[in-house]
Specification:
alpha/beta; Rossmann fold; 6-stranded parallel β-sheet; 6 strands; elongated; cell inner membrane; NAD; NADH_DH_b; transmembrane helix; transmembrane
């Protein structure tokens, strides 16, 4: 009975109240999903609510639209579900940022494909007037949806290549890039406006759509290549926002309330998160888009070889002895921990220290890793208790009382140059005050590399710092053995 009620009125005209109710319920579940994902303790419930909302939205759409036969739909779902399942099972946690970027590109591409389909066969989408011409408001929606989708696709592809190491994380700065970018964006807006007021159809209209699509693909590429690795968490969040707005624009074209609600939620939440991330780095959103933050991690910020300075190197036995003598240890994880997959053995080390009555806490910087929440995800995977994980503003004042600051794979987020060196590209970014701890252990592979922002770190050379030069997982394993 429910199926027949939902199907009634799906062909346009007045909105079927049961369909509207179903989409409203799915929207509520999406809101609950975002609320749940705001905390590690409720993230599982958030994911579950998101799945329920998506099942309701997709199911309602399939029931109320004669898209294809149930056989064809089942095959499509099976293929897509199998691909997603295999990727989710095989993907390493270190590859999660590029996976997210890759999925964003698919959302953008889907928006472009839907927009082009609506342009080619507008009658099927119910966006034509009595004379068979596409409505002006629908032309605007189509143009914006295609443009935002294309920008999301090409920008996400570049982000994927940078995050996966297939492309240098250093900014690629083109001559007069700001003029080129602004000119290209202006051209896209002019073309969308021209398309909106054009009603002639034919080859001229087709060329407008082609140029909108091509220029949008190009500007997506141009916007991301000048952005350095240190800004990648903001880029991932920004692209997430773009994908949401692209989906919302296509929701208007399709007349699908669920897409509009979901796209608006994703777009607005991504924009808010991007703003929060920029504040965490003391950078404006415009400065991130302008690019130029970050340099090759094999040299200094200016590309010149770094000066060799004396430092203290220790062993796992040295670290284990001093750790078990401590009363309070604060662990600062970074991308190096993710690369080494050291989160599980790190939790074992923390458990061993807690058995010796050592207080252990984890300090998470908002931009640690390569995407928002990267470190939180890794620690949650290792079953680190949520009440031991603290954000920068909640724990930074405790370093003065800490016996040991244990840095594993982090760099820029503990660099005091952010507070003292006005010429540094990270100046003004809030960082952990590890220099106030009585003892600092710093795990990194070698002294040859610096952070993703491309600047040296004075913490390496402090009197209370002991460098533990090794693979992060191997070093922590040796520390655990020494503690046992």
């Amino acid at each position: 009975m429910t199926f027949s009620i939902l199907a009634a009125g799906a062909d346009g005209g007045s909105v079927n109240p049961w369909v509207a109710l179903a989409y409203l319920v799915s929207g509520v579940f999406f809101i609950l999903a975002l609320r749940g994902l705001s905390s590690p303790a409720t993230s599982r419930a958030g994911n579950r609510n998101g799945i329920i909302g998506m099942v309701i939205a997709v199911g309602t759409t399939l029931i109320t639209h004669n898209l294809a036969t149930w056989y064809e739909i089942a095959i499509a779902i099976a293929i897509g579900g199998a691909i997603g399942f295999v990727i989710a099972r095989r993907i390493a946690m270190t590859s999660m940022p590029e996976l997210v970027a890759g999925f964003h590109s698919l959302v953008g591409l889907a928006a472009v494909v839907v927009g082009l389909a609506a342009w080619l066969d507008p009658a099927s989408f119910g966006i034509v007037d009595a004379e068979g011409q596409i409505l002006m408001v629908s032309r605007i929606e189509l143009g914006l949806g295609i443009a935002i989708g294309a920008i999301t696709f090409s920008g996400s592809v570049i982000a994927f290549l940078k995050l996966s190491g297939r492309m240098s994380g250093s900014p690629i700065l083109l001559p007069a890039r700001h003029v080129i970018n602004l000119g290209t964006l202006a051209a896209i807006l002019v073309l969308i406006g021209t398309y909106a007021v054009s009603g002639a159809g034919g080859a001229g209209e087709g060329m407008l759509i082609v140029w909108i699509t091509v220029l949008a693909f190009i500007i997506g590429f141009l916007l991301i290549i000048p952005i350095g690795g240190a800004d990648m968490p903001v880029v991932v969040s920004m692209l997430n926002s773009y994908s949401g707005w692209a989906a919302a624009a296509m929701g208007f074209t399709l007349g699908n309330t669920a897409m509009i609600i979901t796209g608006a939620l994703v777009g607005s939440s991504g924009a808010i998160l991007s703003y929060i991330m920029c504040r965490a780095m003391n950078r404006s959103f415009i400065s991130v888009i302008a690019g130029g933050f970050g340099a090759d991690d094999s040299a200094g910020a200016d590309g010149a070889p770094r000066e060799q300075r004396p430092y203290k190197q220790g062993s796992a036995d040295d670290a284990a002895f001093m750790l078990e003598q401590a009363e309070k240890v604060i662990i600062i994880p970074g991308y190096g921990m993710a690369v080494a997959q050291a989160q599980h053995i790190l939790r074992e080390m923390a458990d061993a220290l807690k058995e010796k009555d050592v207080e252990v806490k984890y300090a998470i910087h908002p931009v640690a890793g390569r995407m928002p929440g990267h470190m939180n995800v890794l620690l949650a995977e290792a079953n680190v208790p949520y009440d031991e994980v603290f954000e920068l503003e909640d724990i930074n004042s405790e370093f003065a009382q800490a016996d040991v600051a244990f840095i594993i794979g982090a760099n820029d987020v503990v660099n005091p140059a952010a507070k003292t060196d006005k010429s540094s590209p990270i100046y003004g970014m809030p960082v952990f005050d590890v220099d106030k701890a009585k003892q600092v252990f710093f795990i990194k592979r070698s002294m040859g590399g610096v952070g993703y922002a491309g600047v040296d770190n004075d913490v390496f050379y402090m009197d209370q710092t002991m460098m533990l030069l090794s693979d992060a997982k191997k070093m922590v394993e040796e520390i655990v053995k020494a503690l046992d």
